[in-house]
Amino acid sequence: MSTLRRWESEGKLVPQRTKGNQRRYSAEQIMGFVRKVTPKPDRITLAYARVSSADQKKDLERQKTVLEMYCAAQGWNFELISDLGSGMNYRKKGLQSLLQKLLNGKIERLVITHKDRLLRFGAELIFSVCEMKGVEVVIVNKGEEASFEEDLAKDVLEIITVFSARLYGSRSKKSQKLINGMKKAVKAAQ
Prior knowledge:
Layout: H1 2-10, E1 16-17, E2 23-24, H2 27-37, E3 44-51, H3 57-74, E4 78-84, H4 93-103, E5 107-112, H5 123-132, E6 136-139, H6 148-170, H7 173-189
Parallel strand pairs: 3-4, 3-5, 5-6
Antiparallel strand pairs: 1-2
């Protein structure tokens, strides 16, 4: 009985009162409270770090350290996944693992340093899936909200960067050699 009074004074479980001042709790209220306080041993905190290229490995290590320290300070047991690849590449091994665990209900919370470390485009979709699965999303360095114009400029710059990298890659000697070989094979087959 004293536990219910304490929870009421702490605002954790607030009952409806009868005219005789007796406490009444609805089934939905009890079930919601039980879901909140029941430990979910099979669900984990997942920390995710990503950088775009190999020359950013120091930044990847910094992100991993920040995530490890943050999760440890919160007292969370966690798993750390890191990826090396474009924020527009949806086939990265770590991201695929994150998505699989998310869809299988294995994640309690997702911790990232910045929103764009998850994905450049499509992070909102992942956040929506997290919400549907009851996964808390923690962004360590939220910073100030960017204006619409700043977000748009960043998006355009990212698109230009990705296409420039692909164009540059298509001009490399190895790619040109492969393309020329394919052209010769097609001509020979005709």
